[in-house]
Design brief:
Order of helices and strands: HHHEHEEHEHEHHHHHHHHHH
Number of strands: 5
Number of helices: 16
Strand content: 5-15%
Distance between the termini: 25 Å
Shape: globular
Helix content: 55-70%
Length: about 400
């Protein structure tokens, strides 16, 4: 079960854990996270990206890319190149120019609001590490095609980097590095244009959903158009994964805007109501399960890191004390070394045990209806430990505590 939780999707459900450290997040921030999530799930699919290359890139760029060779870069590859500055999505592609076949990278950056800093700077943070690595390995520069997909509230004006200088001085403008990037702004793309290309398939679903997600009544109005892209198509494992992500997004947007499902359905034209209800009936219930699984994974990771950190600190303190005590009998240096090793080992073990109990405690609080077997499977622990933590929570509740320190 724990391995199944290693999903690409990254939803932050730790607001209770972080309430003391962070300010409450705004609706705009939560919506931006939901947009980013849907985008990454869909663009993780090579067929969706291939459709984007064929129908959405400028002709001069599209002609360069050999769409038969298009592979998503694995996370380890992306981390190796980009380090801490991780791009949204990176694909390995092959460019064709005459008889030449050139390996290159297709870099996608997604924005659901107006960038607060020049987009060139952010793109350069992704591109420069690639070229530095080329230099270290004495290779030629890897061509990179940067693509910005934008669906903010207002159209994005494409500007040169030099336009961000505080004053217009020709010599300074010439000294400022500049480059082009592909801008695909959904504000400038009409529904009619998209509807003409039914072969967009799931890309059409994504683009129309993102275009109207900020205005839920418009989203409902265009639901027939959205679902028409996949009408009558066979549904396999790939289609189910994308449809589940789409169902999660729709439910999330409605919940954030405090819109009841019945109210949303009432705004959908009659021609699309049946298809929409069928989609939610098939994939809606599983959306809650997937969200729960993601929540489990994030809670587990957060608590384990914190508990291990505390365990190491306690181990060091205990090790020093034991080392000093044994030093009187075995010699200060040898005793201190053995004490530190023993203390660290004990601290790490204690940290792991506390982490597991914390995971179980948070699961029991987050999902009170779950059985002991289900909690045990999700946390990767025994039912005995689940029962132990449940008793501690009950005792803490009876004693008037909030149960936050139950596993400590």
């Amino acid at each position: 079960m724990i391995f199944r939780l290693k999903l690409v999707i990254k939803i932050n459900f730790l607001h209770k854990l972080m309430a003391k450290k962070q300010k409450p997040r705004s609706l705009a921030s939560l919506l931006a996270q939901a947009y980013d999530l849907l985008f990454k799930v869909f663009f993780d699919d090579a067929s969706v990206v291939r459709a984007f290359v064929r129908y959405c890139l400028p002709e001069e760029v599209r002609q360069l890319i050999q769409t038969s060779y298009l592979h998503k870069a694995e996370s380890a590859y992306v981390s190796q190149y980009f380090g801490a500055a991780l791009a949204d999505v990176v694909y390995k592609v092959r460019l064709r120019s005459g008889a030449c076949r050139i390996p290159a990278l297709l870099l996608f950056e997604h924005k659901s609001s107006q960038p607060t800093t020049p987009i060139h700077i952010q793109l350069l943070a992704y591109m420069l590490p690639v070229w530095r690595k080329n230099e270290r390995e004495r290779k030629r520069m890897t061509p990179i095609i940067p693509v910005l997909i934008h669906h903010g509230k207002y159209p994005l004006k494409k500007r040169h980097l030099r336009e961000h200088l505080p004053c217009k001085i020709a010599v300074l403008e010439r000294m400022t590095p500049d480059f082009e990037f592909v801008l695909f702004d959904l504000n400038t793309v009409s529904v009619v244009e998209l509807r003409e290309h039914k072969e967009l398939e799931f890309l059409g679903v994504l683009l129309l959903t993102l275009k109207f997600a900020r205005r839920w009544e418009e989203l409902a109005k265009h639901m027939p158009d959205i679902l028409s892209f996949i009408e009558g198509r066979p549904v396999g494992a790939r289609e189910e994964r994308l449809l589940r992500a789409w169902a999660i997004f729709i439910q999330k947007v409605l919940a954030m805007n405090k819109i009841r499902s019945e109210e949303f359905k009432a705004k959908i034209p009659r021609t699309g109501q049946e298809a929409y209800e069928m989609m939610l009936e098939l994939y809606g219930p599983e959306a809650a399960e997937m969200i729960a699984d993601l929540k489990v994974a994030r809670i587990r990771k957060q608590i384990q890191e914190e508990a291990l950190r505390k365990g190491k600190e306690e181990g060091l303190r205990e090790g020093r004390q034991e080392g000093l005590r044994k030093g009187r009998q075995e010699g200060f240096r040898e005793g201190r070394q053995k004490g530190l090793q023993k203390g660290l080992q004990k601290g790490r073990q204690q940290g792991k045990e506390e982490a597991l109990e914390e995971v179980v405690a948070h699961l029991l609080r987050a999902f009170p209806g779950w059985s002991a077997a289900r909690v045990a499977a999700a946390a990767g622990v025994s039912r005995t430990l689940v029962s132990k933590v449940r008793r501690k929570l009950v005792e803490a509740s009876n004693n008037g505590h909030n149960g936050e320190d139950v596993a400590r």
